[in-house]
Amino acid sequence: MDMSQTKTPVQPVDAAPDSAVSTRNISKTYGAVEALRDLSLEFPRGQLTSLLGPSGCGKTTLLKIIAGLLEPTSGTVEVNGKTVTGPGPDRAFVFQDFALLPWATVLRNAAFGLEMRGVARAEREDRAAHYIKEVGLSGFENAYPHELSGGMRQRVGLARALAVDAQVLLMDEPFSAVDEQTRRKFQEDLLNLVRNENKTFIFVTHSIEEAVYVSDQIAILLPRPSRVSEIIRPTGFRGKGVDNIRRDPEYLDIVDEIWASLRSYVE
Ligand SMILES: Nc1ncnc2c1ncn2[C@@H]1O[C@H](COP(=O)(O)OP(=O)(O)OP(=O)(O)O)[C@@H](O)[C@H]1O
Prior knowledge:
Number of strands: 10
Shape: globular
Helix content: 25-40%
CATH superfamily of the largest domain: P-loop containing nucleotide triphosphate hydrolases
Largest sheet: 6 strands, mixed
Distance between the termini: 18 Å
Number of helices: 7
Structural class: alpha/beta
Strand order of the largest sheet: 6-7-8-3-9-10
CATH topology of the largest domain: Rossmann fold
Number of domains: 2
CATH architecture of the largest domain: 3-Layer(aba) Sandwich
Bound molecules: adenosine-5'-triphosphate
Order of helices and strands: EEEHEEEHHHEHEHEEH
C-alpha cells in the first residue's frame, strides 16, 4: 500500500483549505534519536486536527514545535503566514497536567494567562468568568484545584487557554487521565467549542475512536522517524448530532480503517 497517499473516504479535501498553521519539512532529532523527519502538514482554520499515531512517534514533539517551546532541527512552522520563532499570543498550550497554580482559585487560574499578559484585574476576571461558564464550571470560581476532580481541573486549563483568546489551541492528550464518562462528556463539549469558538484546535490523542469523534481532520503519523502517512477527513457525519456519531456507519468504517493501517505497528 502506498502510505504517502492522501485518503478521502468521506468527502474530497477542499481545493485550497485556508490554513491557520502550516508545518514545512519539520525534522527533529534528540541526540541519536530521530523523532520527526521532513514532516509537512496543513491545519485548516477553525477546525480541529488530531495527531494520531503509535506511542513515541513524535506527536508531543510536533505540538511543542508548533507551540514554539521546542526548536526543530530543520524546517519551519507558520502561523497565519508568519514564521514561528518562539511561544506567542496566537497559540495557547493546554498541557496534559494543566499546570494549574495549587494556591490560586479557579477564577485566578483561568485568568492567569491574561494576568501574565498584563491585562487589568477586572477585565481578566470578567473574561475568565465567561470561559469558566463556557467550559461548564459555573459555581466553582472560588474553589481551589485540590477541591476539583481531574476532569474539572482540565476544564480550568481549557478555560485559561480560551480566555487568552489565542487563535490556535494546542491540546496534548487532554482526556487521557479521566474516566470514560467524563471523557465522553468532554469530547461532546469540545465539539461544541470547535463550532462556537472558530478557533483552530490541534489535538494529540492515542485513541482512534476519540480522533474520529472530535476531528475535522486526522493526521496519522508513522513511527519514528515520524512522517504523515495519511490525512483523513471524517466530515460526513458531522451535522448528525453528538449522540448519533458513534453509531454512524461512516464513523465505524473510518475507525476500522484507521485501526487497519495502525495495527501493523503494534503487533
Ligand atoms: N527530550 C528528549 N530527549 C531525548 N529523546 C526524546 C526527548 N523527547 C522525546 N524524545 C524521544 O522522541 C520520540 C518522540 O517522543 P514524543 O513524546 O514526541 O512522542 P509521542 O508520539 O508524543 O509519544 P506518546 O504518544 O507516547 O506520548 C520518542 O522516542 C522519545 O523517546
